[in-house]
Specification:
heterodimer, A: 847 residues, alpha+beta, 5 domains, 6-stranded antiparallel β-sheet, 23 helices, 24 strands, B: 139 residues, OB fold (Dihydrolipoamide Acetyltransferase, E2P), 29% helix, 31% strand
């Protein structure tokens, strides 16, 4: 059959470029590998030249593939499955890129694009190491492109191509019609949960972080392959620093996203997906420090190898965790199961890098030089190494817990677990506490280590020297912490006094580190900012931890029944005899002020947004003086929900930000419009000014009729044609309300602007004017439940410490990178200015 | 301090982590029948909404009380009480992971994880259904 209106050329081109890129990646892997093993210089150069040219072919293919997908999605060619699944006509242009990386294929492609960019830098900046390093990068490209290959080998489809046709992918009667396309009016579009600034910006940054971790791994391979076991460390350090900054920022962008636009109630929940990207970062930081040690002293080379390798291995493992659906029942994230073949391919991808590399590492372990003289306890490298170990152990701990769903799927272990544990293993009742009780100790140790370590010298430092320098920061930190404990205590009693003590210990240690690192810039470096990258990043990291400790410990749920003592008395669990968790939702009736913590909160009105199905709820928060009733503080927030078909709802919080705290509110339940259709009718009465009408709960008085009113609600010009009825409503319980329905004539004709007294469930409409100065007033008493929303509201204190700490950390790491890479003054200045502006903009200004 | 000391320290640290983790009461995935056998123990249930039974949620009277019935793949049912707001896509979910404790007459749920077909764009059936609805509407 010939189908009408299809555009098949872009897809055919796309397929061609995928295959071309795939073959090019394979060829460049082989030729770079050949080059790296070739002794003969001319031969070697030939291989390199060939490898580079095919790598460029691969880059061109990847760019072409991406452009074609973009073209298909932006032109709404729904004959392509990818466009049908991810694009739609109502989608705002800024989400066009986001809808491309919403899909599995698009995100693999994003990854390959970053690898390509990094590959270009390696080929031009690192000629000496390019052959082995590019072997690894090309091999990764080969696997990533295989994921989108879409070629059948016997019955198995190798990879999912983004250029498959809708009619080939899904069944349906319309596909028997030649003009089927004319029935497909629109695509499914970007998931509304993801229509968000962060969806545009978070994936590219995170994937750049992911992609860049391949470089330390590739250099470690290069070190072994070239038998120049120690020389790779120096050139790779700037790369590792770059990776640490980008990956760190990418991860915390996810946190900021979760915090400000998803209703998870915080920025970090130890969700498996979050953990899966945190673990490689922790390993990278461990590796970074051992590399610095090696550069300065010759120690810790073997550890550097191990951490550089494991970092990328765990990036691959996180791909496995998040893309094969193995986490399905444990994470709030939605996962797609792309099919068994893809799962197996991802498994092979992970193993293809992990097994040979670890084999090479252990085979050559003895050949990797190591110093057998022990480090002095009074040396800087000793304490740095301990710090790296702590990072390493905490990474292992986190991934061990995160992998619980994996254990349940391994055949033999699965049976063992069921036998011992009595069922498949699942997370405990309070999974966050499981992580927190370990990680609070980690924070304590790291705080102390980062505080003191820089005051030690490499090799060995006389104790009098260290003590003399460290005494001032120590005393300052003790003073600051004591003051804070007195004036701003942490109130986290949920897990008993023992845990609170641990929190305080971490609190002290992190403050100690903040102070010590700030002062180190003067005491240790005499204010030489150029070398202060390390101190600044430690300062930022620890500031972030201080912020995390404060905002988590002193987070308040102000909509909680414990705070407000309404809704329901806290119930007692009949089995454990303990009080249940406080109930965290509060229902606000429209226009009825409700007490929430220190605030009086009123749901004022709702309004629809530009996008279909989006609804904003305007909530007024007022803090009043308890005696004088004067308003001390007042602000409005507008949390919103997307109402989707089938009553699906997605909720976006709104936050009032102060420098010292955020008041964070989201809608946890709202009436959908369909359910709330009002069937009652207006009852029409004719009234003159001063007349009275009745309704079931009281009276309505028409005070006067105003032409072109100018007041709080309306603002008409004298040339307009509008009449407003000024009404006073008095209910049987002697409450007075004011209503102002309006009748307007404009180009479109007559328009009624109704008014409502929600407390009385009363609607009034100015219907028209009759003779002898009477007006027609419609009065309706709704038979539907009154309008309301149910909200959850939190206060996060000092959350800005978290974001500013992160920004400072990333900035400090980039400073170190610039110093290690030996940038010229101009380039350093431009880079730093760009990084500072970008970070500040992305985190604190945009959105 | 010698390397061996470090090794010992690391060993101690690992031991502490091990002990702290071991003392944690890991939960299990259960069926409704097996959960009923261990009342009061924190378990994970995987089930789906029982459409034949009513969902009770009245946000005006109490926004923190939701009750519904769940049925698991073996056909057993239980009443579920969740002291929180009603997840918006409960009716649409095709699988519910519930964490909580079985009581005498109901499952006291502490946390709900919904698996909704709308989140799974790669689900073929869902795509076909969507295509059918959409094209039917425009006919």
């Amino acid at each position: 059959m010939k189908f009408e209106g299809e555009h098949l050329l872009p897809g055919q081109l796309g397929h061609f470029f995928i295959i071309l890129g795939f073959i090019a990646a394979l060829l460049s892997t082989i030729s770079f590998f050949k080059a790296s093993r070739e002794k003969d210089l001319i031969q070697k150069n030939n291989w390199i030249t060939f490898g580079r040219s095919v790598f460029f072919v691969q880059i061109a293919s990847v760019i072409a593939i991406f452009s074609i997908i973009f073209f298909i999605c932006s032109h709404h060619y729904y004959e392509y499955m990818y466009a049908y699944k991810h694009a739609s006509k109502e989608l705002e242009p800024k989400y066009l890129l986001a809808c491309i990386w919403e899909g599995q294929e698009g995100s693999f492609l994003l990854w390959t694009i970053w690898h390509s960019v990094l590959g270009i830098f390696i080929m031009f900046r690192s000629k000496e190491w390019q052959a082995p390093v590019m072997t690894v990068i090309s091999l990764a490209q080969f696997f990533l492109l295989m994921m989108i290959l879409g070629i059948y080998v016997f019955d198995a489809r190798i990879g999912n191509s983004p250029f498959t046709l809708t009619r080939n992918e899904i069944a349906g009667p319309i596909f028997n019609l030649p003009n089927y396309l004319s029935f497909i009016k629109d695509g499914m579009g970007l998931n509304v949960l993801l229509r968000n600034y962060w969806m545009v910006i978070h994936p590219p940054v995170l994937f750049l972080g992911f992609a860049s971790t391949i470089i330390p791994f590739a250099y470690a391979y290069a070190g072994i392959q070239t038998k120049r076991y120690g020389e790779w460390v120096k050139p790779v350090l700037p790369w590792a620093l770059f990776s640490a900054a980008v990956l760190g920022v990418g991860i915390m962008m996810g946190g900021k996203w979760a915090y400000e636009s998803l209703s998870f109630g915080g920025y970090w929940a130890w969700d498996p997906v979050e953990n899966a990207s945190l673990v490689p970062w922790l390993l990278l930081i461990a590796g970074l420090h051992t590399m610095v040690i090696y550069n300065a002293t010759g120690h810790s080379l073997r550890a550097s190898y191990l951490f550089a390798i494991l970092c990328f291995v765990f990036i691959l493992y996180s791909t496995f965790l998040t893309r094969t659906g193995v986490l399905g029942d444990t994470s709030v994230h939605a996962f797609t199961e792309a099919g068994n073949v893809i799962n197996i391919m991802i498994g092979i991808f992970v193993l293809a890098f992990t097994v040979p590399m670890l084999f090479l590492f252990f085979k050559n372990y003895k050949k990797i030089p190591a110093i057998f003289k022990e480090e002095e306890t009074s040396s800087r490298e000793f304490w740095m190494f301990i710090g790296s170990l702590v990072f390493f152990l905490s990474a292992l701990f986190i991934i061990a817990i995160t992998s619980i769903p994996v254990y349940n799927k391994i055949p033999f272990i699965k049976d063992l677990i069921i036998k011992i544990h009595g069922g498949p293993l699942a997370m405990p009742e309070d999974p966050e506490f499981l992580y927190n009780k370990i990680m609070v100790l980690v924070a304590f140790i790291l705080g102390l280590l980062t505080a003191i370590t820089q005051y030690f010298k490499y090799k060995s430092s006389p104790s009098s020297y260290v003590i003399k320098k460290i005494i001032a920061p120590t005393l300052t930190a003790i003073l600051v912490t004591t003051l804070l404990i007195i004036f701003y205590p942490l109130n986290f009693h949920k897990h008993g006094p023992g845990f609170l003590v641990a929190i305080y210990a971490a609190f002290f240690a992190t403050i100690y580190s903040v102070v010590a690192n700030a002062m180190y810039i003067w005491i240790g470096l005499n204010g030489k900012l150029k070398s202060a990258g390390g101190a600044i990043s430690h300062f930022g990291f620890m500031l972030m931890l201080v912020g995390i400790l404060i905002s988590s410990s002193n987070k308040e749920v102000i909509s909680s029944s414990l705070v407000n003592g309404i809704n329901m008395p806290p119930s007692i669990d009949p089995l454990t005899k303990k009080q249940d968790d406080p109930k965290e939702n509060l229902t606000l009736l429209r226009e009825v002020p409700t007490l929430m913590g220190n605030y009086e909160v009123t749901y004022l009105k709702d309004s629809s947004g530009k996008e279909k199905g989006r609804k904003f709820y305007e909530l007024l928060f007022e803090k009043k003086d308890p005696i004088t009733k004067k308003s001390l503080e007042s602000f409005k927030v507008q949390p919103d929900v997307y109402m989707m078909k089938d009553n699906n709802m997605s909720s976006n919080p709104d936050t009032k930000s102060y420098l010292s705290k955020d008041v964070f509110t989201y809608i946890s339940y709202a009436l959908s419009d369909e359910k709330n259709i009002d069937t009652s009718k207006f009852k029409i009465t004719e009234l003159r000014e001063g007349d009275t009408a009745f309704y079931s709960h009281g009276i309505v008085v028409l005070n006067r009729v105003v032409k072109n009113p100018v007041n709080k609600k309306y603002n008409f010009k004298p040339t307009d044609v509008a009449l407003m009825a000024d009404l006073t409503i008095t209910s049987n319980d002697s409450m007075h309300y004011h209503a102002m329905p309006l009748l307007q004539v404009d180009d479109l004709g007559l328009a009624n602007i109704d008014d409502t007294v929600y407390v009385q469930n009363l609607f009034v409409r100015f219907i028209g004017v009759s003779d002898d100065k009477k007006i027609k007033l419609g009065i309706k008493e709704s038979d539907k439940p009154i309008d309301y929303v149910t909200v959850k509201s939190y206060i996060f204190p000092y959350i800005n410490l978290v974001w500013s700490g992160l920004i400072i950390m990333a900035f400090g790491i980039i400073m170190s990178m610039i110093k290690r890479a030996g940038f010229s003054r101009l380039r350093a200045g431009v880079t730093l200015a760009f990084v500072a502006v970008a970070l500040f903009y992305m985190f604190l200004l945009a959105n | 301090m010698k390397k061996t000391h470090i090794v010992i320290l690391v060993g101690i640290a690992a031991l502490i982590i091990g002990l702290l983790t071991y003392s944690v009461d890991f939960s299990t995935y259960d069926t409704i029948v097996s959960a009923k056998e261990k009342k009061g123990k924190f378990v994970h249930l995987i089930a789906r909404l029982d459409n034949r039974q009513p969902i009770v949620y009245d946000a005006i009277n109490n926004p923190n009380y939701l009750s519904f019935y769940a049925v698991d793949s073996l056909g057993a049912t239980t009443k579920v009480v969740y002291h929180n707001s009603k997840p918006a896509d409960l009716e649409k979910s095709e699988r519910i992971v519930m964490k909580g404790k079985m009581q005498e007459d109901h499952f006291e749920c502490k946390d709900i994880l919904l698996k909704c077909p709308s989140k799974y764009k790669d689900d073929k059936k869902e795509l076909e259904k969507n295509m059918k609805e959409q094209t039917a509407a425009s006919n």
